């Protein structure tokens, strides 16, 4: 097993060695149920799909993903264990990727445990399972994007609270940048290329595109680039902090 795998295993097991992973998964499932059945009115809609669940998922991630990401590096820096970690025969990039994958895995498990919803809509009707599968994939990629942003901001501060708030704010910007209200505000004075750039940066626009059941290569490249760029930024921040 390479060092990235060892870091991943250490981090992943660490989540379940404490109540953290269990608490996160329970909160995720409870809030998902509230959004789906009470706010989304799953049964009243009379449609065999999971729109009542997926429509609210970006907003749920907006709160829960920063909560998972805030401890990735802030805790290591605050407790001083990052110095110990960096003395091991592991590169910064291997540590960053390993820790990120462990957190992404936890969010993947939480998302996967919503499978009874998928079974329910198949029991009640004849949903388009291809669309549901694509939306699950888009949801997981979106969670990865949020976590990658949080990883970088967590590396920049020792305070988990500050990391949480900064990640929440920046993820919110990435979510709403494609909203018509935001586009209308900029359209009065901003050039067209800036409007197109804001729309392209919107994580929600790419998630919505995938949730229509069409897995476009451009959307996959967007999420891969977002995750890759923020993880590279995380490596740069950690190396800068080591030099301090």
From TrEMBL:
Keyword Nucleus set for record: no
Record has ATP-binding as a keyword: no
Residue ranges of the TM segments: 20-40, 52-74, 95-119, 131-149, 161-182, 220-240
Superkingdom of origin organism: Bacteria
Protein location: Cell membrane
Entries under Pfam families matching the protein: ABC2_membrane_2
Entry membrane topology: Multi-pass membrane protein
Main location: membrane
InterPro entries: ABC-2_transporter_component
Keywords, comma-separated and alphabetical: Cell membrane, Membrane, Transmembrane, Transmembrane helix
Gene Ontology CC annotation, any one: plasma membrane
GO molecular function terms noted in the UniProt entry: ABC-type transporter activity
Protein name: ABC transporter permease
């Amino acid at each position: 097993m390479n060092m990235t795998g060892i870091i991943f295993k250490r981090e992943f097991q660490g989540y379940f060695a404490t109540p953290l992973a269990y608490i996160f998964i329970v909160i995720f499932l409870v809030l998902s149920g509230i959004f789906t059945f009470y706010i989304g009115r799953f049964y009243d809609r009379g449609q065999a799909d999971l729109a009542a669940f997926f429509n609210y998922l970006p907003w749920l991630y907006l709160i829960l993903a920063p909560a998972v990401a805030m401890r990735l590096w802030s805790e290591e820096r605050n407790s001083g264990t990052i110095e110990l970690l960096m003395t091991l025969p592991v590169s910064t990039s291997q540590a960053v990727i390993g820790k990120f994958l462990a957190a992404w895995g936890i969010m993947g498990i939480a998302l996967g445990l919503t499978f009874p919803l998928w079974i329910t809509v198949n029991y009640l009707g004849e949903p388009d399972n291809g669309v549901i599968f694509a939306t699950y994939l888009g949801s997981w990629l979106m969670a990865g994007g949020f976590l990658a942003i949080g990883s970088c901001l967590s590396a920049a501060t020792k305070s988990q609270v500050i990391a949480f708030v900064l990640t929440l704010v920046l993820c919110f910007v990435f979510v709403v940048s494609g909203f018509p209200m935001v586009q209308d505000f900029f359209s009065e004075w901003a050039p067209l290329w800036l409007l197109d750039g804001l729309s392209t940066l919107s994580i929600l626009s790419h998630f919505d595109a995938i949730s229509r059941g069409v897995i476009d290569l451009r959307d996959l490249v967007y999420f891969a680039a977002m995750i890759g760029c923020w993880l590279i930024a995380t490596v740069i921040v950690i190396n800068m902090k080591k030099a301090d």
